[in-house]
Specification:
The radius of gyration is 27 Å and the shape is elongated. Helix 15 links the parallel strand 6 and strand 7. Helix 2 packs antiparallel against helix 3. The longest helix has 41 residues. The chain folds into three domains: 122 residues, Globin-like (Orthogonal Bundle); 113 residues; 156 residues, 2-Layer Sandwich (Alpha-Beta Plaits). The protein has a five-stranded mixed beta sheet, sandwiched between helices. It starts with a helix and ends with a strand. With 415 residues, it is an alpha+beta fold.
């Protein structure tokens, strides 16, 4: 190794790495793959200055660099792909070098990617563990069915994240903590149709396979494999809970959690579905938005035409929402003439556009109820998960925007 280092120090390898790094990162940054404030010179300096440092110092350096990139919202796969491009450029510049030099450079970049991956991994685990523990606490307050369905998976996810954090192999066979999921289990069969069960079973089996990969990667300290496996594991846990939640919501709708007048979910269903979707969005780092709308001048409609016409208007608005929204969106009758819409995996801006589109459609037509032709509008407020720490805060902020819309002339949505 000393002989190899001596040869390398007599080459212009540092300059090759520096130029390759700056060229490739500048292009990727220009194309929008990296944040505008990414310090390319700092990136390049780390890659070149650590070339001849000892192994422990390299570990610390690139581990910290990985954590810093995570903190600054540099996408993991984008960064790893960029390092692959840099490595390819450097290696192609060393075509006529001895094989020992080529191997040294290849090992160097593999080491970099592995340690940066570890930095990302530790940061993600720390963030996810807080959310998983929070969700475990919230499960205690849910119905017995939700406890049975979700708690085991959250405990499993918590156990795996703890083992990753400590780089610890499971004290017993890793399958010991795997929840039991089969069609003979009554608590599952009563909620899921056969086709839904098969989808969830497939996710369950994929989770088992990922757990195997995770523990194998811990054993061999292969963080470049462990990090994406962990990311996929958390994503699938979230997907499992999300799909199960939808099935449970349907089950609850069969148990009088549907508003009898409008056919949408009622407040009781909201108290079950919204907290679960909120925690899923937090764990999976996915967007979630809500909109609250209130029919304009509804009291005047009731006073002028009677409550039967008012009920008809509520039905028509509910139908308009159902026909305009995705099957994955949830509609709740929130109050007398108020509706709350839950938009899973949707940014606030998109939810806002959707409600504005529905409002414009309503403005362009009339509603017929018991022989009366009425022009109906609504006012609304939209809020997203990133600006709120809990469901109550999200609703409070959306509600405040709704009343801003009312005070500023009605028939508008404020986001």
């Amino acid at each position: 190794m000393e002989e190899v280092l001596k040869i390398i120090k007599n080459t212009n390898l540092k300059d090759i790495i520096k130029i390759s790094t700056e060229d490739i990162l500048s292009k990727l940054k220009k194309d929008g793959f990296f944040p505008e404030d990414l310090d390319i010179n700092k990136f390049s300096k780390i890659f070149t200055e650590s070339l001849y440092t000892d192994k422990q110092e390299k570990k610390r350096l690139f581990y910290r660099f990985g954590r810093e990139c995570y903190k600054n919202y540099v996408h993991f796969y984008t960064l790893i792909d960029a390092i692959d491009f840099i490595e390819e450029r450097v290696l192609s510049s060393l075509n006529f070098m001895p094989i020992e030099i080529i191997k040294f450079v290849w090992d160097y970049f593999e080491f970099i990617k592995n340690q940066i991956s570890y930095g990302y991994l530790v940061s993600m685990v720390k963030s996810d563990k807080d959310l998983i523990r929070k969700e475990l606490k919230s499960v205690k307050g849910k119905s017995l069915e939700l406890k049975d369905l979700f708690r085991d998976y959250l405990v499993w996810a918590n156990k795996i994240s703890e083992d990753i954090k400590k780089l610890r192999l499971s004290e017993s066979n890793y399958t010991t903590y795997v929840p039991v999921f089969n069609s003979q289990n009554g608590k599952f069969s009563k909620f899921f149709k056969k086709e839904d069960f098969l989808v969830l079973k497939d996710i369950h089996n994929r989770l088992i396979n990922l757990a195997f990969i995770i523990y194998t990667s811990i054993l061999h300290r292969k963080f470049i494999i462990l990090t994406p496996a962990y990311m996929e594991f958390v994503k699938l846990i979230s997907k499992f809970i999300s799909l199960a939640s939808v099935n449970i919501a349907v089950k609850y709708s069969e148990e009088n959690k549907i508003d009898p007048l409008t056919g949408v979910f009622n407040r009781r269903a909201l108290d079950i579905i919204f907290p679960s979707q909120f925690q899923i969005a937090q764990i999976s780092n996915k967007p979630l938005s809500i909109g609250i709308i209130d029919i304009d001048d509804f009291k005047k409609i009731n006073d002028t035409y009677g409550h039967i016409v008012g009920d008809c208007v509520l039905k028509r608005i509910a139908d308009e929402l159902k026909n305009s929204l995705r099957e994955s969106d949830f509609i709740f009758r929130y109050g007398g003439e108020e509706f709350l819409i839950l938009f899973p995996f949707t940014k606030k801006e998109k939810a806002c556009k959707t409600l504005n589109r529905i409002l414009e459609r309503l403005k362009s037509k009339s509603i017929c109820c018991l022989g009366y032709t009425l022009k109906i509008t609504f006012s609304g407020g939209v809020e997203g998960i990133w600006d709120s720490s809990n469901t109550f805060e999200m609703i409070e902020k959306a509600d405040e925007k709704l009343y801003q819309a009312k005070r500023s002339g009605k028939a508008k949505v404020i986001c």
